[in-house]
């Protein structure tokens, strides 16, 4: 099939969706992006809405007022299209949102987006024919249409369906309970006794936000010892896991009890693909999406791909790498790996993870232990340029600095020297650093043979 005749469906117009679409367009394919909201940006869009939107659908975004990135902007751009230069490395959510929209406009992706179109079902075409049948509802008119595509790229993110643990007694609690998905402004914590559950990025950041206005914040978690060294304001008390919830207090596994008026769940999100028909052959088992080749290709139907599942990564750079990986096969530049090869690789990687003690919910976790080799494996198999080492090094350094100095790590300023080297200083010294090390555009566009 001629490349211009190939039809691609991209589900979601967040950063992974617009990046995937841009990559497809560059390869000459025809792409349609279905976005259930009325704007680009996915999780970076802010709205005061919580619960359900005007169409009765769960609100997608988890963005809250005042959020700043927890990664330096130097690793949040796309190859050939960097974040705008400024002194600070950690930037506001609205700056990231505008960057994604500018990127989409620059590469002529925006006009390919069908806004307020909800993908209701994706299923393989009948036996004997190739491709996918995609059923879509136009939310404003209610009209339902069915389309056929050769490829489907799922880019709906994974910060939209909250996980709330079923603690004993939670139904009898007399105070307020909410998940961070429904958090927008810190005034809900004013003069309250707040319990924050969960020590991920949201849990640590929002513990600080609550501490500014609350009487007391109890920070409950079961993270490794080194993370228990996080330094919080004086009105934050670290406590162990919750044992049970009482009407006006919470009991913890060490037998202690504390009065609480707000329980704030920062307990993560589920990977959710309600539009996938069972015939797609994809299962989600305790946040392990399987069976996928290199966390991307659906082994049972490899013309379906998932962009953006791995976490603790250089996200936008990984989206772009994954998209290039898929399109290298979809555009027939390389033959598709065999099912046997994909299954063997999948089993090998998962066994490596299980042998290191990881659980199913950590099946897509990267971080310092996995991300570098993961990026390299994508690049090697598809014969494409990997993410430069300097990016993963900055990612790891940023995470280390957050543990060392939670309240001030966002004052760090990073500058790229070359593909293997970065320098860093405090924001008070950034003028000197900017003069000595101008912004370096790392070349990640060229492909090896």
List keywords for this structure.
FAD/NAD-bd_sf, single chain, 449 residues, 8 helices, NADP, globular, 22% strand, alpha/beta, five-stranded parallel β-sheet, FAD/NAD(P)-binding domain
Q: What would CATH call the homologous superfamily of the largest domain?
A: FAD/NAD(P)-binding domain
How many discrete domains? 2
Please identify the structural class as seen in this structure. Answer: alpha/beta
Contiguous uncertain segments of 5+ residues: 443-449
Radius of gyration: 22 Å
Q: Give the biggest beta sheet.
A: 5 strands, parallel
Keywords: FAD, Flavoprotein, Monooxygenase, NADP, Oxidoreductase
Protein name: Flavin-containing monooxygenase
InterPro entries: FAD/NAD-bd_sf, Flavin_mOase, Flavin_mOase-like, FMO-like
Enzyme class: oxidoreductase
Briefly summarize what is shown.
This protein is α/β, with parallel strands linked by helices and 449 residues long.
Describe this structure in words.
With 449 residues, this protein is α/β, with parallel strands linked by helices. The protein folds into 2 domains: 7-160 and 269-393, 3-Layer(bba) Sandwich (FAD/NAD(P)-binding domain), CATH 3.50.50; 176-265, FAD/NAD(P)-binding domain, CATH 3.50.50. Helices cover 23% and strands 22% of the residues. The protein has helices spanning 15-26, 93-106, 201-211, 315-330, 339-355, 371-382, 389-404, 430-436, and strands at 7-11, 30-35, 113-115, 117-124, 132-138, 144-149, 151-154, 176-179, 193-197, 216-220, 236-239, 242-245, 249-252, 257-259, 262-265, 283-285, 288-290, 292-293, 297-298, 304-306, 412-418, 421-426. The chain has a 5-stranded parallel sheet with strand order 3-2-1-7-20, with helices on one face. The protein has a 5-stranded parallel sheet with strand order 8-15-9-10-11, covered by helices on one side. Strands 4-5-6 form a 3-stranded antiparallel sheet, with no helix packed on it. A hairpin with a 2-residue loop joins strand 21 (412-418) and strand 22 (421-426). Helix 4 (315-330) runs parallel beside helix 6 (371-382). The longest helix is centred in the C-terminal third of the chain and has 17 residues, at 339-355.
């Amino acid at each position: 099939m001629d490349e211009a005749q190939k039809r691609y469906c991209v589900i979601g117009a967040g950063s992974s969706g617009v990046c995937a679409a841009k990559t497809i367009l560059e390869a000459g394919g025809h792409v349609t992006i279905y976005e259930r909201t009325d704007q680009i940006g996915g999780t970076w869009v802010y709205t005061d809405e919580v619960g359900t939107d005007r169409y009765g659908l769960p609100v997608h975004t988890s963005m809250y007022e005042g959020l700043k990135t927890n990664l330096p902007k130097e690793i949040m751009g796309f190859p050939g299209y960097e974040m705008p230069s400024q002194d600070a490395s950690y930037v506001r959510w609205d700056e990231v949102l505008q960057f994604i929209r500018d990127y989409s406009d620059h590469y002529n992706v925006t006009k390919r987006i069908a806004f307020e179109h909800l993908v209701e079902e994706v299923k393989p075409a009948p036996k004997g024919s190739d491709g996918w049948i995609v059923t879509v509802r136009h939310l404003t008119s209610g009209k339902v249409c069915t389309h056929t595509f050769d490829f489907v790229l799922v880019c709906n993110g994974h910060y939209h369906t909250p996980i709330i643990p079923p603690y004993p007694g939670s139904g009898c609690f007399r105070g307020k309970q909410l998940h961070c998905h429904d958090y927008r402004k810190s005034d809900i914590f004013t003069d309250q006794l707040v319990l924050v559950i969960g020590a991920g990025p949201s849990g640590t950041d929002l513990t600080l936000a609550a501490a500014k206005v609350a009487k007391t914040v109890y920070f409950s978690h079961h993270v490794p010892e080194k993370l228990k060294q996080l330094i919080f304001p004086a009105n934050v008390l670290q406590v162990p896991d919750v044992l049970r919830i009482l009407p006006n207090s919470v009991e913890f596994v060490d037998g202690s009890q504390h009065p609480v008026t707000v329980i704030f769940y920062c307990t993560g999100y589920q990977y959710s693909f309600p539009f996938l028909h069972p015939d797609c052959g994809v299962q989600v088992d305790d946040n392990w999406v399987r069976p996928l080749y290199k966390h991307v290709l659906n082994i049972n139907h490899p013309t379906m791909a998932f962009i953006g599942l791995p976490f603790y990564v250089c996200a936008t750079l990984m989206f772009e790498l994954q998209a290039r990986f898929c399109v290298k096969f979809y555009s027939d530049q390389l033959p598709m790996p065999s099912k046997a090869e994909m299954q063997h690789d999948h089993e090998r990687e998962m066994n490596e993870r299980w042998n290191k003690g990881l659980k199913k919910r950590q099946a897509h976790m990267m971080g310092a232990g996995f991300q570098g080799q993961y990026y390299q494996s994508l690049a090697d198999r598809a014969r494409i340029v990997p993410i430069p080492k300097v990016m993963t090094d900055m990612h790891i350094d940023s995470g280390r600095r957050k543990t060392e100095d939670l309240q001030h790590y966002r004052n760090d300023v990073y500058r790229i020297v070359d593909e293997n080297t970065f320098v860093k200083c405090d924001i008070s010294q950034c003028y000197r650093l900017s003069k000595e090390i101008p912004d370096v555009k790392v070349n990640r566009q060229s492909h090896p043979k």
